[in-house]
Amino acid sequence: MITLDNDEKIILEVRKHWFVFWAQSLPLVFLIFFPFIIKVILSVMGLSDIVVFGKHTQTFITVITTTWIWFIWVAFFILWTDYYLDILILTNRRIIDIEQKGFFSREISTFRLDRIQDITVDVNGIIATFFDFGDIHIQTAGEVPEISVKGIPDPHKVREIVSQAQDEAIEKSRVVKVDGTL
Q1: Is 151 left (phi over 0), alpha (psi -120 to 50) or beta?
Q2: Exposed/middle/buried for residue 113 (C-beta within 10 Å: 0-12, 13-18, 19+)
Q3: Among 36, 38, 129, 137, who pairs with 120 as Cys (CB 3.0-4.6 Å)?
C-alpha cells in the first residue's frame, strides 16, 4: 500500500483512540435491541397478538428483525473499517495520513517533515482529558495545507515525536546542503 524509500524508516503509527471507536459504536448497540423493545412495548399494551399477515405474521416479524440486525452489523463493520484503516504514519522523512472514507474510497496525503510549519493539539472535554485523546492539526507549506487527525491517543506525545523528527529532518537537510553529500 505505502512504498517507503530504502533509507526511510517508520517512527510512529497512530490510529484513533479505542474510546472514539466505542463511542461511535454505542448507538448501534442500542439500535440492535430496538425490535425487541418494540415487541415488549406491544406486549405490555396487549397488542402482541395482532394478526397483520394472517398465519405468517411471526415469519414477517422475524424477517424484519433479522434484516434490522443485519443493517446494524453492516454499520458496525463500516465503523470498524474506518477505525482500522485510518492511520497516521510518521517516517524519518515524511508524514503519511491515510483517511478511509467508506469501503471503497481512501484519501492519502503525504508531505515532507521539513515542510511542517505548525503543530496544534486539541484536547476538549473531561472524557478526552481523562482518557488522554484528542486532535492533532499539522500545517504545512505544501499542496495539502493542513492535516487533521481526530481522536488520537496521547496527542501531546505524538506532537513531541513529530517535532523531534522534524528537527532531525531539518538538521539532516542542512548538512546535505552544506556538504553536498549525505
Answers
A1: left
A2: buried
A3: 137
Q: How far apart are CA 158 and CA 13, in angstroms?
A: 10
Convert the pLDDT of each residue in 59-69 to its tens digit: 777 888 899 99
Instruction: Give Cα 53 to chain centroid, integer Å.
Output: 44
Q: What mean pLDDT value characterizes the chain?
A: 85
**Rounded Cα gap, residues 113 and 173, in angstroms:** 10
- 88: Cβ contacts below 8 Å, ≥ 6 apart: 12, 13, 14, 15, 95, 96, 97, 98, 136, 147, 149, 152, 158
Q: What is the pTM of this model?
A: 0.77
Q: How many CA atoms within 13 Å lie on the side-chain side of 123?
A: 17
